[in-house]
Every structure is written in structure tokens, then in C-alpha cells.
Specification:
elongated, DUF8060, two-stranded antiparallel sheet, 57% helix, 3% strand
Length: 115
């Protein structure tokens, strides 16, 4: 007697045999911290935490981009009003560097949490 489930034919007409029931399939289990097993969810708490960290990273990057555009415009106007023409380039460079370092720090913190 051959097992039809082991090697399906190459065409699309292969179906599961009648002797296979859903009760034969094991539900996914996850080990709990107390050593027991849980069949509550396909996703474990580690997977959920990872997804939330990726969402937090994406939110931080998007927020940094929007804030940077608005802040650059505002600070550019302030620099034009308050700083003498010959020093404007230096103030803009210093401001851009500070914003860039803050964004890199936040992104690297999130990447450390993810990995």
C-alpha cells in the first residue's frame, strides 16, 4: 500500500485522501516560561515584540523626516534674521549636524532593540 500524502503527482489534480482529518494535524505549540506549552497563538510574545519594535523604528524614521523638513525651514529663517551673512553657513552646518546625530542615535537605539 502506498502513501498518497508522501509524494504528490506533478499535476494540480492531487488532493488529500479521505483518511486525513484535521484532528491528525498538531496545533502549533509554544513553550511558556514555566516549561508548559501554549497553543493560544501562532505568534509568540517574542514575535509580537519584534513587530512592535519595527513599527516603532518606522514611526521614528517618519517622524524624524517630517520634523527635519519643518525644522530646517524654521531654523533657516531664524538664522537668516539673526546671524550675519558670513556666519550663516557655519550655523546651518552645526544645526544639521546636531539633528543628524540625534536621528542616528534614535535609529541605532531601535536597531539594537530589534537585533
Amino acid at each position: 500500500m502506498s502513501d498518497e500524502r508522501a509524494t504528490p503527482p506533478n499535476d494540480d489534480s492531487w488532493t488529500m485522501s479521505n483518511d486525513t482529518h484535521d484532528s491528525d494535524r498538531a496545533e502549533p505549540t509554544h513553550l511558556r516560561s514555566d516549561g508548559g506549552q501554549s497553543t493560544d497563538s501562532v505568534f509568540g510574545s517574542r514575535d509580537l515584540r519584534s513587530v512592535l519594535n519595527y513599527l516603532a523604528l518606522a514611526g521614528l524614521v517618519l517622524f524624524a523626516l517630517v520634523s527635519a523638513v519643518q525644522l530646517y525651514a524654521a531654523v533657516g529663517g531664524i538664522i537668516n534674521e539673526l546671524i550675519a551673512r558670513e556666519y550663516r553657513v557655519f550655523f546651518r552646518a552645526a544645526f544639521n549636524l546636531v539633528v543628524l546625530l540625534l536621528c542616528v542615535g534614535g535609529i541605532s537605539l531601535q536597531l539594537d532593540r530589534i537585533t
